[in-house]
Amino acid sequence: MRLPLTFLRLEKHHVKLANEGKGMAVKKRQKSLSQGRPPTSKPKERMTSQRSRTIIRTHHRLHKEYASAVRKGDTKLAASIAKAIEENGGLEVYQAASKQGQSKDRGGDSSKVLIDWLQGAHVLDRTKRTVIEDAAKSILRCLEVGALSTNNEISKYPKNIEMTRIDLNSQEMGIEKQDFMKRPLPASESDRFDIISLSLVLNYVPDPAQRGAMLKRVTQFLRHNDPSQKIDASVLPALFLVLPLPCVENSRYLNERVLLRIMTNLGFSLMNEKKTPKLCYYLFTLTGASNSTKIEKKKVRDGPAMNNFCVIVE
Ligand SMILES: C[S@@+](CC[C@H](N)C(=O)[O-])C[C@H]1O[C@@H](n2cnc3c(N)ncnc32)[C@H](O)[C@@H]1O
């Protein structure tokens, strides 16, 4: 029989009073077995934001140096940098540090912005967490490249958005370990996606030409516009791109004008953008074909505290 909570509280209070009244020492309650068991895992420690920033920066720097050593064929240097990457915790610790950046108290996960834009474009219903109207049959397919979690905002619409999550290093079930650059090209339309998310992934790629290749490759994985789609899909098929703000605002080789030129050349139109003090978010719709224009490394501005982030399209 379940006793009401108030009754239990009162009874506890009375027993305590009775024991005190008798001047008796309150007998220590026997601990349950589970309390006596040694913990199976240590509670997860939270990194300070300073520490996670240092880990992320060091990983990016070493990763770039490693790619450069490999490009030059300097195997000895590459091996010593690989060792330094491991000493910094490797990809796993880097991912843990990045994941902390997704926690609610540090701004939350970036897919919140994507959901907001899909709702604004009437692709998703704002209140019911469904695809709008009778389009519920049209399940959207989303490829999240660089996925660290299966619980992000974008994953909260399982009836309407079918998620495919990949990462170079899978952290949990539901995320496939796969390099997007090696994912087999779609054999048919059913291997393509309505939405591809590259959130803080492009800046992870150490080589400027590989970044351009990644953006180009996205166009091959997005579905082609299908006029028979029932949903108001004016923003689809779409690329959700998130970059650290300094990549666009403080680089010698990339500014927003150059980024937009690259995307336009690849066949994208800008639908939404948002900037916060740390990040910039873009929603691009694939509206046309790539015009195969090359974009080279070219200085667009200079300054002592600027970075060299760059995207080359070959
Ligand atoms: C900073 S984390 C981004 C995590 C998350 N998307 C976010 O917005 O916080 C970058 C992730 O991208 C992954 N990544 C980079 N290049 C990739 C590729 N070619 N294919 C799959 N994952 C990749 C890395 O393994 C890493 O986990």
Please give a structural write-up.
This protein is α/β, with parallel strands linked by helices. The protein has 2 domains: 49-101; 109-286, 3-Layer(aba) Sandwich (Rossmann fold), CATH 3.40.50. The protein contains 9 helices and 7 strands. A 7-stranded mixed beta sheet has the order 3-2-1-4-5-7-6, with helices on both faces. A hairpin with a 3-residue loop joins β6 and β7. The protein starts with a helix and ends in a 28-residue tail after the last strand. S-adenosylmethionine binds at residues 91, 95, 98, 102, 110, 145-146, 148, 166-169, 179-181, 199-201, 204-205, 242. S-adenosylmethionine (SAM) is lined by residues 91, 95, 98, 102, 110, 145-146, 148, 166-169, 179-181, 199-201, 204-205, 242. Its EC number is 2.1.1.-. S-adenosyl-L-methionine binds at residues 146, 167. InterPro entries: Bmt2/SAMTOR, SAM-dependent_MTases_sf. Keywords: Methyltransferase, Nucleus, S-adenosyl-L-methionine, Transferase.
